[in-house]
Design brief:
rod-shaped; 0% strand; 7 helices; syntaxin binding; disordered N terminus; mainly alpha
């Protein structure tokens, strides 16, 4: 034991840290083994009915396995944070180099099996820690995958809502065009009615003028005739004055009717103009509200997607680093085990000879 203490101080530090964290790591490792055994047992139980039934329930079994994996990953993660604590993995950056140097030193000193076994045990402890962290990274990767699927489903809902809003805007634009065309038609119809009334008024005035002209001619003719019939003129003079008064009342009544029709026409034109302005204002407000809602939903979706991509990139980079470290340590462990076996065989061969 003096050899490892004097020659490999970094390995001793790692071993002491492993001993200090022994209870907690062994319990976590035991739980991880129990979960792995449960997974293997459940996998065997799923394989037996699938082999008897063929491939009928492949889709259901796959979906059930995905659900179980997701629930197990959520239980392993435990909290809402997706950061993996890897502070204890890379604390000793020269672990592999120091282990190789200690191994070479032990080999030169005669290949002490105890010292070599101590080095191998330290490396295996560090490898177990790496495997535990990799399991945590895998569990949190599964949780992030579920979150990604939820975000994709939310994205589909947002796109569906966006499509509905766009179709609603198109429908509103179509209704706007219909209302504008209807307003134009009503305005043209009112203009046509006004022209008809104006033409009727002009015709009435012309008729009255003709009648008055004819009456004037008749009056002159009457005067010439009445020169000989002055006696009769006095008799019919009162009747003629009454008839002229009656004609005056009729003309006044017609003038009042024409003025009333003109006032009604102006009032109807003003009402039509006000209704058209109200419809245009309502359509403009609806368009602004729809544009603000679409812009707000697009901003929320872009912000959430950017945060998800950044978090996914960080987790993928950490998982890649941990995988590279595990590969290097596995290669070194295989080399150390081969050297250990060779030294043990050499020791067994030299023992009978001595």
């Amino acid at each position: 034991m003096d050899g490892p203490t004097s020659s490999g101080s970094p390995l001793l530090t790692t071993g002491e840290r492993a001993k200090e964290d022994g209870g907690r790591k062994r319990s976590l490792k035991h739980k991880h083994k129990q979960k792995s055994s449960r997974h293997s047992t459940s996998g065997e139980e799923h394989e037996k009915p699938s082999s008897s039934k063929g491939h009928k329930d492949d889709g259901g079994a796959s979906h059930l396995q995905d659900l179980l994996t997701s629930k197990i990953a959520q239980l392993q993660v435990g909290d809402s944070s997706l950061d993996v604590d890897i502070s204890g993995i890379f604390s000793d950056s020269k672990l592999v180099d120091d282990a190789s140097a200690s191994w070479e030193a032990a080999s030169k000193d005669g290949g002490d099996v105890g010292q070599l076994d101590y080095i191998v045990q330290g490396m295996l402890g560090h490898l177990a820690l790496l495997q535990q962290k990799l399991s945590e990274v895998h569990a949190k990767y599964i949780v992030m995958r579920e979150q990604k699927m939820a975000l994709v489903e939310s994205n589909l809902k947002v796109n569906s809502t966006k499509g509905k809003l766009e179709s609603l805007c198109r429908e509103l634009q179509k209704q706007n065009k219909t209302i504008i065309s209807e307003s134009r038609r009503i305005a043209e119809e009112e203009d046509r009615k006004r022209q008809q009334l104006s033409q009727q008024f002009q015709t009435t005035i012309e008729d009255v003028s003709k009648k008055m002209e004819q009456q004037g001619k008749d009056y002159v003719s009457s005067l010439h005739d009445n020169e000989a019939l002055q006696g009769k003129l006095k008799t019919f003079l009162a009747q003629y004055e009454l008839r002229e008064e009656h004609y005056a009342h009729q003309l006044q009544a017609k003038d009042l009717a024409v003025q009333l029709a003109d006032a009604k026409l102006q009032h109807q034109i003003e009402l039509t103009k006000r209704e058209t302005e109200k419809v245009a204002l309502t359509l403009e407000q609806t368009k602004h509200i729809s544009e603000r809602e679409v812009a707000l939903q697009c901003d929320q979706y872009d912000h959430g997607a950017i945060e998800m991509l950044q978090e996914r990139g960080r987790v993928a980079e950490e998982a890649k680093k941990a995988q590279d470290k595990i590969s290097k340590l596995e290669g070194l462990c295989r080399m150390l085990q081969a050297e250990r076996n060779r030294l043990m065989e050499k020791t067994k061969e030299t023992a009978p000879a001595s």
